[in-house]
Amino acid sequence: MTKPKHILLVIGGGIAAYKTSELIRLIKKSGMTVRCVLTESGAQFVTPMTLAALSENEVHTTLWSLKDEAEMGHIQLSREADLLVICPATANLLAKMAGGVADDLATTLLLATDTPVMAVPAMNVRMWLHAATQRNIKQLRADGIFVMHPDEGDMACGEFGPGRLPDPEAIMAEISVQLEASFTTTDGATKSEPGNRANILDGQPAFAPDRHRPLRGKHVLITAGPTHEPIDPVRYIANRSSGRQGFALAAAAAEAGAQVTLVAGPVHLSTPAGVIRVDVETALEMEKAVHDALPADIAIMVAAVADWRADSQSGQKIKKKGAAPEPLKLTENPDILAGLARHEQRPGLLIGFAAETQKIVQHAQAKLAKKGCDWIVANDVSGDVMGGANNSVQIITATGSENWEQLPKPEVARRLVAKIIEEIA
């Protein structure tokens, strides 16, 4: 009989701590066991008695328990677990983890563990966006800790923006993904490792599960799909992009161990396993979502963003009046790729896509110079590429071009991610 997975849940001091009660219920419902470590500040929001009743296990609160520490409890707690989950991970906890501080039970066991760790941040929007917090997040990801991206919305403090704790169901789904991830060691044993997601592209893994995940600790930002630019409540300006190439790239990057944020226009595709998805409709919304997701180590701008939008949107459906309507006045949309190239948090490797129908290489070379990115992936969309299953691309860089024959989009994604790994190695 397979031994049930065991979660060690570290609860930080934030108002979102109340949601851990539901998370514990979901963990138990899934057939796993859970033990809680409650920080001193976390105890201001939830009680040990509540957590003990829900988890059906003793709750640990102090490093100075004579019984526990006589048995080196802070080490044993982490070694018994298959996954350590910090929820909510406050700005203070994240800062201590990034700096290697060990001044209480929670931070000591986190420093002493070799068990996979998953952090679920929750804090005020200004704290989340602060440069210090973003530096800490980058360091933690580089250290191999999986950090979920917080949700965006209204907060208890009355402000709006990124920083909300994700719903318990979303956290539980990510816990399952992290637990499914494993690699085979040289002695044949299987060991869990965060971020090694078992997502499969067309039945074939992008990277063999027994290999080191080369993008571990890297944040990859990807845009995909079209944008819809409203004219009136029933009409919009759009294009034929399906989003399939961008979603395949998100899956391949996640398989390689990256933390992936996928900003998706209006498409009907399932989110790849372990990928953080942000849905948008317009170019302006996509630009904001891209900037909100920074910093990123690598950005791949695959989305086919509409060049133009209606200068003004009618609040009512525009009716036929027997004569030709007034010409539609258009205004230019932001150039998200070029703007990202000039951004103070410009990703270290910035890749753009170019959909062309003629003079593919020449137009892509001109776009590379104009946009200020590092690579352009040019594809000929004169056939059925937009919405189709295959793609034929040219990789344009400052040193030359590389032509790839027509391949299934998941294979194009795998090859491009492999090329990125080679570039940053």
From TrEMBL:
Q: Where is this region: Phosphopantothenate--cysteine ligase?
A: 220-425
Give the Flavoprotein domain ranges: 5-175
Q: Which UniProt keywords apply?
A: Decarboxylase, Flavoprotein, FMN, Ligase, Lyase, Magnesium, Metal-binding, Multifunctional enzyme
InterPro entries this protein is in?
CoaB-like_sf, CoaBC, DNA/pantothenate-metab_flavo_C, Flavin_trans-like, Flavoprotein
Q: Which cofactor does it need?
A: FMN; Mg(2+)
Q: Which residues bind CTP?
A: 307, 317, 334-337, 353, 367, 371
Indicate the residues that form the catalytic site.
157
According to the UniProt record, where is the region Phosphopantothenoylcysteine decarboxylase?
1-219
Q: Where is this region: Disordered?
A: 186-209
Q: Which reaction does it catalyse?
A: N-[(R)-4-phosphopantothenoyl]-L-cysteine + H(+) = (R)-4'-phosphopantetheine + CO2; (R)-4'-phosphopantothenate + L-cysteine + CTP = N-[(R)-4-phosphopantothenoyl]-L-cysteine + CMP + diphosphate + H(+)
Question: Which pathway is recorded for this entry?
Answer: Cofactor biosynthesis; coenzyme A biosynthesis; CoA from (R)-pantothenate: step 3/5; Cofactor biosynthesis; coenzyme A biosynthesis; CoA from (R)-pantothenate: step 2/5
Which residues belong to any copy of the DNA/pantothenate metabolism flavoprotein C-terminal domain? 215-422
User: What SUPFAM superfamilies does this protein map onto?
Assistant: CoaB-like, Homo-oligomeric flavin-containing Cys decarboxylases, HFCD
Query: Is the Metal-binding keyword given for this protein?
Result: yes
> What's its EC?
4.1.1.36, 6.3.2.5
Q: What does the record say about how the cofactor binds? A: Binds 1 FMN per subunit.
Assigned protein family: In the C-terminal section; belongs to the PPC synthetase family.
Summarize the protein's role: Catalyzes two sequential steps in the biosynthesis of coenzyme A. In the first step cysteine is conjugated to 4'-phosphopantothenate to form 4-phosphopantothenoylcysteine. In the second step the latter compound is decarboxylated to form 4'-phosphopantotheine.
Q: Which PANTHER family match?
A: HOMO-OLIGOMERIC FLAVIN CONTAINING CYS DECARBOXYLASE FAMILY, PHOSPHOPANTOTHENOYLCYSTEINE DECARBOXYLASE
The protein depicted here goes by the name Coenzyme A biosynthesis bifunctional protein CoaBC
Q: Which organism is it from?
A: Parasphingorhabdus flavimaris
Organism classification, top ranks?
Bacteria, Pseudomonadati, Pseudomonadota, Alphaproteobacteria, Sphingomonadales
Gene name of the record:
coaBC
